[in-house]
Amino acid sequence: MSRRRLPFSLTLAATLTLGGGLAATAVLTVAVSRLEYDNKSLVFEQGAEVRVAALRQGMDEAVEVLNVTNQLFTTVQPVTRAQFHDFTTPLLQRNPYIRAFNFHRVVQGGERAAFEADLRQFQPGLVLREMHGAARVPAPERARYYVVDYLEPMQGNEAALGLDVGGNRHVMDALARAQASGRAAITDVLRIAQEPGAPSFEVLMPVYSQGGHLLGDTAAVIAVPTLVKAALARAGLLDDHSIQLRFYGGSRTDPAHLVYASHDTAPSAPPFALMAAGYTGRAVSTFTVGGQSWTVEAIAAPRPWLADHLGSTLLAAGGILSILLLTAFVQAAGQRARKVQELVRERTADLKLTNQRLIDDVLARKRTEKALQESEQRFRQLVAMSSDWYWEQDEEFRFTHVTGDFTEKSGIGTERVLGRRRWDYVPALAETELGRDHIATLEAHEPFRNLEYRVVDDNGEERWFCINGQPIFDETGTFTGYRGTGSDITARKVTEQRVHHVAQHDVLTGLPNRSLLQDRLGQAVAYATRSGHQVWVMLIDLDRFKFVNDSMGHKAGDVLLMTVAARLRSSLRDTDTVARLSGDEFVVILSEHADQPLAPDIVQRVMDSVAQPVMLGTKEFFVTCSIGVAAFPSDGTPAENLIEHADIAMYRAKKLGRNNFQFYTPAMNEESLERVRIESALRNALDRDEFVLHYQPQVDLQTGRIVGMEALIRWKHPELGMVPPSRFIGIAEETGLIVPIGAWVMRAACAQNKAWQDAGLGKLRVAVNLSARQFSAADLVPGIEAVLNDTGLEPSCLELELTESLFMSDVTPAVELLHRMKSLGINLSIDDFGTGYSSFSYLSRFPIDVLKIDRSFVNDITHDANDAAIVASIIALAHNLRLSVIAEGVETAEQLDYLRHQGCDEMQGYYFSKPLPAHEFEQLLRQRRGLAAPEDEPQTVVAFEN
Fold first, then answer.
1. Angle of the 545-552 helix axis to the 554-570 helix axis, nearest 10
2. Cis omega (within 30 of 0) on the bond before 740?
3. Which stretches within 511-655 are classed as H helix?
4. Three-class secondary structure of residue 111 per DSSP
5. What's CA 718's distance to the chain center, in Å?
6. What is the C-alpha to C-alpha distance for residues 68 and 47, in angstroms, rounded to an integer?
7. pTM for the full model?
8. In the structure, what pLDDT confidence band is assigned to residue 787 with cuts at 50, 70 and 90?
9. Which residue from 327, 500, 538, 900 has the highest number of Cβ atoms inside 10 Å of its Cβ?
10. What is the Cα–Cα distance from 393 to 480, expressed in whole angstroms?
11. Band (904; pLDDT cuts 50, 70, 90)
12. How far apart are CA 162 and CA 120, in angstroms?
């Protein structure tokens, strides 16, 4: 038996020795600790006073910065935005705690419109707003507004520009105090949007006119945490963590008004820190700056015990060690007698332990028997509550037992199962490969898992079962049958079938999607290969579908797609496949049969079914389609490229005007490859400096002199030669490359015009075409302004040509954009006027300077009365609207004579000059060539003397 260690206890003599020694040591330690406390208190009070002085100085400096800013408005009137920016930027850099400077301007109700117009130069569409809860809403009409006019920095604070703060109680109260005292005033503590977690306040100082009228105020937004840190850092106290600071807005230490709290960490004092006589180290000081009270709470940071109590600690440790040694000596004398007593207690305890173990063994056996009974009961309950059932079979695989709730869970009566094999009551199982493999597994007496098969229950409904089984052997190893579990998985199977359908069909139309389409196409090609009959693949694209989405909404677009899908299915055979490829594109697979040959009439029937009117809401809408057809087998169409070739043919149909169908030919592929080559080379043309500009002169018909020119782009490709615009402009529009190309044309044309003017060749106007992509770009106006600034060209010498289709789709934004462009001082002209959708009411709203008559009208004015009347009407209309008129495409003297007699202002065309390279156009200018005046005809082209 092992001997237990005797419990430790002190004798009476040792206890008295220990207690007396500890009492004496404690008295001395407390006395020394009190001296240390007094020293620490004095150091803390001095440190707190230094920090309060530093914070007050920092607040005074913040107010002084605003006073300096306010002096700008006192000495300079009026102060411009540039002066405000230049003056405040260095202050923001030197004082990082200042988040923003602003100038609140008093705006009378009658001045609101002019004031808003001025602010829209910086924020288009801006109106005066005010805060309504957390939202900014347009300010209602009132007699006077108090508006944020100047704001620095602007970045990040754009939302405050134009904000009426007249309803802000904090700002207006501070302004009233500043007016009354003549000094800067501070608002209550605010939370700004840029730093929601950082408390801030605003310092305000009124600004008066020379006549003494209130013009507004200057204000600075101060971030309190940053200001406090800057003040402490300037005093060299930021890294001193011996004192923790809390800064409150107000005269009380209210946690709700806490604006700054240091989060310095230090080791916590040990539990016996109470010996420091309850020292807390807290000082509160209040001062007033800018009419607001501020309270500083200084708290001594906790420090390690030894840092402040080294003397008392050493005294206590030395005394305790001495007392312990003395106590140990006294204790050793009485220890021997205690060992004998402990040995007796140990033997008695061993006897009790042995007896308790016997009792525990008996109780454990009873608990085990009860647990077995409960386990059996739980198993029976689990079987009853589970969705599975339990079954047993004999050595002939006939069911001998199934659980009582089998019928409820499976829908099959037990009499249909008992005494029969599984494939007896499910005959189809034995006819499948899965069933035959299962029978082989049973005959091999092997276990099986997750056997899934289909069965019809007693109600005639189809169900799916999942079965698991284990073979049974007796003690001699003889096979006696199977036992296992089964479950109804019908719900899972139905879900799997639904998921499979969704994975292979379009959700909106229910048609096969791209995945199922590839499978159907593979089957159709295999059939065509075996039978020798053709397969047609039709790619159908709806015309003007984007217009439906844009004008009537996506719901109307969805209704249209579902309607077209239903019409396509109804117009074709059940054996044909109709699939939705993407967006508004559908694919049809047609297989030819001996008694059903394929013919173009089928394609026409599909087009006719789609072209029927569709009711979208209360409006009747007509939709057409463009179809490309690729056939297999045929020359040049391998099976894997059928959809691609049908797509090429469809785009050919689109190019031919839509609402038609085209069969794929190898020549279309060559055209497509040519397009790809052009697009690839076009992407590098700008970087390789392959574009050049030609200039066609515009001549004044009254004086005969050249007054301007149109800049026309040409592409000088190293391999393709001089590529005409008709081959690459359309591709550039589709790919978006027209935006950088158009920007290059504008910059190059302006730079060339400026160079000719500097060379003394006259002040000419250069016209540049603006594409639809450029017109919709967000940076259009800033880009034009940058080009004029960089090239030095006067805005009046730049004319931008726009087609009517650019702005007729959405007139209101277009009018606003045109006015912004016009405000730069440039000229605007409508190109190809009369060929598109023209509205006189809209034309009167556009800030247009010039109308260009399209060459299609000019060509036939000498022998077509209708075209001549149209041209005369356009000229009269333009002059009534005080617009100039340029006729383009003038090629004969008769056309020129007619235009002159109708009062046309300028002409442009091959009659005078074709588009010329820059150096040839410069020679034309130096020669002073021009048209003869009307009285000098028929000598038309002349040279003017210098």
1. 140
2. no
3. 514-531, 545-552, 554-570, 600-610, 642-655
4. helix
5. 42
6. 32
7. 0.42
8. very high
9. 538
10. 8
11. very high
12. 10
432-442 confidence digits (pLDDT tens):
888 888 899 98
Of 577, 566, 393, 395, nearest in space to 486 by CA: 393
In three-state secondary structure terms, 134 is coil
With 80 as the cut, is the pLDDT of residue 278 above it?
no
DSSP summary character for residue 747: H
Contact 99/106 with Cβ under 8 angstroms? no
Query: Which residues partner with 851 through β-bridges?
Result: 830, 885
Q: Which of 14-28, 163-177, 630-644, 738-752 has the lowest mean pLDDT?
A: 630-644
Question: Are the CB atoms for 548 and 560 separated by under 8 Å?
Answer: yes
Instruction: For 378-402, give the secondary structure using H, E and C.
Output: HHHHHHHHCCEEEEEECCCCCEEEE
Q: Is the peptide bond between 600 and the residue preceding it cis, with omega within 30 degrees of 0?
A: no
Report the 3 state secondary structure along 603-623.
Answer: HHHHHHHHCCCEEECCEEECC
By three-state DSSP, how is residue 692 classified? Answer: strand
Strands 884-888 and 850-853 turn out to be: parallel
Query: Which of 710, 703, 707 lies closest to 889, judged by CA?
Result: 710
Instruction: Give residue 805's identity as a one-letter amino acid code.
Output: S
Q: Which amino acid, residue 76?
A: V
Tell me the C-alpha distance between 697 and 914, whole Å: 8
Judged by DSSP in three states, 220 sits in: strand
Q: How many angstroms separate the CA atoms of 672 and 764, rounded?
A: 42
How many other C-beta atoms can be found within 10 angstroms of the C-beta atom of residue 743?
19
Q: What is the pLDDT of residues 80-114, one digit of tens each?
A: 888 888 888 998 888 888 888 899 999 998 888 88
Nearest to 487 by CA among 416, 403, 397: 403
pLDDT > 80? residue 670: no
Residue given tokens 């002939």 in the structure block = 396
Check residue 481 and give left, alpha or beta (phi > 0: left; psi -120 to 50: alpha): left
Q: Which of 246, 191, 194 is nearest to 51 (CA)?
A: 246
Q: What are phi and psi of 240, to 5 degrees?
A: -90, 105
Judge whether 653 and 661 are in contact, CB under 8 Å: yes
| DSSP state, residue 428 | G
C-alpha 656/C-alpha 628 separation (Å) is 12
Is residue 685 within 8 A of residue 715, CB to CB? The reply is yes
- Tens digit of each residue's pLDDT (9 = 90 or more) over 505-529: 888 888 998 888 888 888 888 888 8
Report the DSSP beta bridge partners of residue 131. Answer: 136
Task: Name the residue type at position 232.
Answer: L
> Measured in Å, how far apart are the chain's first and last C-alpha atoms?
135
Helices (H) and strands (E) in the chain, counts: 27, 37
- Give the DSSP H or E segment for 282: strand 282-289
Q: Output the six-digit token pair for 837.
A: 């959708």
CA angle 67, 71, 73 (to 5 degrees): 125
- Record the tokens describing residue 578, joined without a space: 């109709």
CB-based contact 130:168 (threshold 8 Å): no
User: With helix as H, strand as E and coil as C, how does 761-792 read?
Assistant: CCCCEEEEECCHHHHCCCCHHHHHHHHHHHHC
Q: In the numeric block, which tokens belong to residue 59?
A: 């607040």
Average pLDDT over residues 655-664: 85
Q: Where are the beta strands (DSSP E) in 301-446?
A: 388-393, 399-402
What does the chain come to in residues? 946
